[in-house]
Amino acid sequence: MSICSAPSIAAVSLSRMPGRSARHMALLAGVSLAALLLSGPQVLALELGGGTAPAPSAAALAAAQSGSQEAARENSNALKRATLSIQTMQASQGAARDAARAALQAMPQVVPNGLRPGGLQIGTGVVGSNGSVNRELWKGADLPTEFTDGDRIK
Fold first, then answer.
1. CB 14 within 8 Å of CB 20
2. Residues 24-67 pLDDT 10s
3. Is residue 111 a contact partner of residue 119, using CB atoms and an 8 Å limit?
4. Which residues face 11 on adjacent strands?
5. pLDDT tens, residue by residue, 94-108
6. Residue 46 CB neighbour total at 10 angstroms
7. Per-residue confidence at 4, pLDDT binned at 50, 70, 90?
8. 64-92: per-residue pLDDT in tens?
9. Residue 115's CB: how many other CB atoms inside 10 A?
10. How many Cα atoms are found within 13 Å in the side-chain-facing hemisphere of 28?
C-alpha cells in the first residue's frame, strides 16, 4: 500500500492496494462525508498541522459594522424621502380638491337639477294628457322621478 501525500489532501492509490476494492473505498469516503455533515454547524476548518481558526481582525469587524451602519442610514434616508414624497402628493391633491370645490361653488348653475325646463325633461308625446305612458316611445325603463335629499334634488 502506498500513500501519496500532497500539502492539503492525502490521496490513496487504489491500483496498489491489494484486497481493497473501489467500492470499499467509496463506502469509506461516503461515511466520512456523512460524519462531517452530521457534526453540525460548529465545525471549523483548520489549517493543516492543527492550530486554531483565525479570529476576524479588528479592521474586518469595523468594516462590517461600518457597512451595516451605512446600509441602515441609507434605508432611513430612503424612508424619509418616500414619506416626504407621499406628504407632498397628499398636500397637492388636497389643494386641487379645494380648488375644484371652490370653482364649482363660484360657477353659476348652468343646468338645473331635477325634472324642469333646462334640466331633465321627458320627451313630448311620451306621457299623455291623462298621465298614461306611450309604450311605443318609452320602452324598457320606468319614467324618471324626482325627490330631494337634504339640499340636493335627485
1. yes
2. 777 777 777 777 666 665 556 666 665 555 666 777 777 777 77
3. yes
4. 4
5. 999 999 888 888 877
6. 11
7. very low
8. 777 788 888 888 888 888 999 999 999 99
9. 14
10. 7
CA angle (109 as vertex; 106, 111 as ends), nearest 5: 150
Q: Which residue has the higher pLDDT, 11 or 60?
A: 60
DSSP 8-state assignment for residue 18: T
Helix H or strand E encompassing 58: helix 58-106
Q: Which region, left, alpha or beta, applies to residue 75 given φ > 0 means left and ψ of -120 to 50 means alpha?
A: alpha
Length of the chain: 154
Query: 138 is written with which cell numbers?
Result: 318609452
Q: Answer yes or no: is pLDDT of 135 > 60.
A: yes
R_g (Cα) of the chain, nearest Å = 44
Distance, CA of 53 to chain centre: 41
Please tell me the distance from the alpha carbon of residue 63 to that of residue 68, in angstroms, as a whole number. 9
Q: How many CA within 13 A on the CB side of residue 61?
A: 4
